[in-house]
Structure formats: C-alpha cells, structure tokens
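Q: What residues go here?
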C-alpha cells in the first residue's frame, strides 16, 4: 500500500538502447515526474538515467522487453526500506 506512489513514479518500462552491448531491457526511471522526463527525452533525444545507473534514450515500445534485473533489485530494495 505504501509503495503505490513509488510505483507510479517508477513503473515506466523503457527500452535500453545504450550501445547494444547487452540484451535489451526495460529500465525503471526515478523522479517526481518520470512521464514528463520520458516525453522530454524522446522529443529531444536526450538520454535518461535508470535506477541501475544506465543511461539510455527511451522509446515508446519497451513493454515487450524484460525488466532490467539491476533496476528491479534496486527498486525492491527501496520498497523494502520504505515498508
Ligand atoms: Zn536498469
């Protein structure tokens, strides 16, 4: 229950397009208004920073990718701390 707000802020799955060195993952992004950040990043082509520290340019079509395990672990840790 207490993690609802956090979930809203972070549950945006985004495509990893950074260098193509790894499999494609959906990363979480943190912040007050990630939707605005993501829109801005898509419009301007500016990379965002994911929870795991990876920088990437978001795309609209990332929901078919698996969630980045590092982002997931960090998010779980934050949620545990908040609980
Ligand atoms: Zn990640």
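A:
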């Amino acid at each position: 229950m207490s993690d609802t707000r956090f979930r809203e802020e972070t549950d945006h799955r985004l495509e990893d397009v950074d260098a193509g060195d790894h499999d494609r993952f959906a990363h979480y992004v943190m912040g007050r208004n990630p939707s605005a950040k993501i829109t801005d990043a898509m419009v301007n082509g500016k990379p965002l920073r994911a929870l795991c520290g990876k920088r990437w340019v978001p795309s609209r079509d990332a929901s078919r990718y698996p969630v980045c395990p590092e982002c997931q672990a960090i998010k779980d840790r934050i949620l545990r701390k908040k609980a």
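A: Context that may help when evaluating the design: The pocket of zinc ion is lined by residues 25, 27, 50-52, 54, 68, 70-71 (CB under 6 Å). The mean pLDDT is 74.
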